[in-house]
C-alpha cells in the first residue's frame, strides 16, 4: 500500500511541475512577441536557511545568485533565468552540502513605481553534493517575493524564495534571503 501511495505522490508532483513548466512557456510567449522587450540583470548575496532534514544537521548557509530577466517596458510580466550557489556546513564536522541551481521562471510585478513589489516562480535542475559524495542532479522548483527600490540607473533589491527539490523524501528545502543590485536597461 505504501508503494502505491509513493507512486501516486510522484505522479502528482510531476503533474504540478508540468503545469509550472507550461506557465513559464505560456508566460514567455507574449514577451517574445513584443518589440520593446529588454534585458536586465541582478546579482545578490545573503543567508540561506535550511529547512526539514537539512535544517537538523546544519545551520544557516551562504547563497549567491545571478539572474537575467527579459521584461516588457510596459507590462508586469518578465521571464527570468536564475543561476545560484548555496553552501551549508554541518554543525560539528567538516561535512558540507553544496547546491548549484539553474532555473527558468516567470516574474510578475504587482506594483511598478519607484518601489517595485514582485513575485517569482521557477523550475529547473538543482545539482547537489553532500560532503565528498558524487554530484546528483534533481529537479526542483522555487517561489518567492521581492521588493526593488529604484535609484536611477539601477535598483537595490531584496527577495526571499523557497527552494524545494524532488522527490521530497530526499529533497532539500531551503529559504534564501538575498540583497543586491538590479541593472535595468
Characterization of the model:
With 185 residues, the protein is α+β, with helices and mostly antiparallel strands. The protein has helices at 2-33, 52-57; strands at 37-51, 61-72, 77-89, 96-112, 115-130, 136-150, 154-166, 173-183. A hairpin with a 5-residue loop joins strand 5 (115-130) and strand 6 (136-150).
Q: Quick gist of this model?
A:
The chain has one domain: Porin.
Task: Write the SSE topology.
Layout: H1 2-33, E1 37-51, H2 52-57, E2 61-72, E3 77-89, E4 96-112, E5 115-130, E6 136-150, E7 154-166, E8 173-183
Antiparallel strand pairs: 1-2, 1-8, 2-3, 3-4, 4-5, 5-6, 6-7, 7-8
Q: In sequence order, what are the helices and strands, one letter per element?
A: HEHEEEEEEE
Basic shape: elongated
Low-confidence segments, ≥5 residues, pLDDT <50?
A: 31-35
- Please indicate the percent range of residues in DSSP E strands (runs of 2 or more): over 45%
Q: How are the strands of the largest sheet arranged?
A: 1-2-3-4-5-6-7-8
**Which CATH architecture would you pick?**
Beta Barrel
Number of helices: 2
Straight-line distance between termini: 56 Å
Gyration radius (Cα, Å) is: 18 Å
Taking the sheet with the most strands, its summary is: 8 strands, antiparallel, barrel
